[in-house]
Amino acid sequence: MGVICKYEKTTHRISPIFKFSTTVRTVIYTTNTIESLNSTYRKLNRQRSVFPSDTALLKVLYLATFEVTKRWTSTIRNWAQVYGELSIMYEGRLPE
Predict the structure, then answer these.
(1) Closest Cα partner for 48 from 36, 64, 32, 33?
(2) Which residue among 21, 63, 72, 75 is least packed, with the fewest CB closer than 10 Å?
(3) Where does residue 78 fall: left (phi above 0), alpha (psi -120 to 50 degrees), or beta otherwise?
(4) pLDDT grade, residue 63 (50/70/90)?
């Protein structure tokens, strides 16, 4: 199976991103909050692979999440434009 054939079979998965403007796509590409959170969880798991109970694990995850969210203070570039565009595309779904 050639590259062209694979592209034609999977283009429906990638093409929806191109309905957004370059500004919105940049925000989507550079917003890696989930990846950062997953990285924090993986780091915790490497440091301590055994927890005495489920409650202990939940407490550690809660505290890690609490600490990570303190760093989520940066503003998103061109947010007003992005928000305006998204609110037009998804009318009624975003809070005013």
Answers:
(1) 64
(2) 75
(3) left
(4) very high
